Amino acid sequence: MAAAKKKILVVVTNVDEYQKVGMRTGLWLGELTRFWDVAEQNGFSMDIASPSGGKVPIDPESLSHEVLAQLGTAERYEDRKFMDLLEDTKKITEVNLEDYDAIYLTGGHGVMFDFPQSRQLEDLMARFYETGRVVSTVCHGATGLLNVTLSNGEALVKGKRVTGFSWPEEELANRAQAVPYNLQEELKKLGADYRTAAKPFETYVVEDGRLITGQNPGSAKAVAEAVVRQLVAA
């Protein structure tokens, strides 16, 4: 099938703790597994990369019994072969753009610290977008859009419809005092048309051409479905 010839780059964090508080963080596992399940079922292959490469920390709260019980996450967590993919990820600097048709930025609060600080990731995101590839994020993964500047000197998100983890969701998650900035407001400052679901933590995905963003962890599957639709139609 045509989809089998296309490949997706999945980007995850290397950061395992907050700067202002002692709580631990990392990749929100379900944001990887739910996307992976949909893409794999539709014949796509994927690689995992991170800003620094190597081992990927997992947010301990994403491993709670309740969260793991969500569709697909527990099975992937028990899968030795799958979890070993997080032991030695490739560095962003090792990524060959021509190998991929889409990029997907996962979340977890760790990305708030290393995604916007990675010039290599910013450059890669701009090249993905300007070469006609699909750019997608979920939840805090949208922090990887904050410093992306296109060749015309404008922010990638300027004038674009986007979403990402909202400030009310930060407050409900008891992380407002821990995060380094307000993602929702930072996107707006860049001129993005930030949109949000009617209620916190509802599944919500925004598509603006080849830019696909999901609001929260529960939106990862829907983001994957949107990415698959665009790649299959291409």
Name a few traits of the molecule:
single chain, 234 residues, alpha/beta, Rossmann fold, seven-stranded mixed β-sheet, two-stranded parallel sheet, 9 strands, globular
Number of domains: 1
Q: What is the name of the CATH class?
A: Alpha Beta
- CATH homolog superfamily: Class I glutamine amidotransferase (GATase) domain
Structural category: alpha/beta
Given the C-alpha coordinates, what overall shape results? globular
Q: What is the level-2 CATH architecture name?
A: 3-Layer(aba) Sandwich
Radius of gyration, taken over Cα atoms and rounded to an integer in Å:
16 Å
Report the CATH topology name.
Rossmann fold
Number of helices: 9
Structural commentary:
This protein has 234 residues and is of the alpha/beta class. It has one domain (2-233): Class I glutamine amidotransferase (GATase) domain (Rossmann fold). Helices cover 30% and strands 15% of the residues. Strands 3-2-1-4-5-9-8 form a seven-stranded mixed β-sheet. The protein has a two-stranded parallel ribbon with strand order 6-7. Helix 1 links the parallel strand 1 and strand 2. Helix 1 (29-41) packs parallel to helix 9. The protein is globular. The two termini are 13 Å apart. The model has no long low-confidence stretch (mean pLDDT 96).
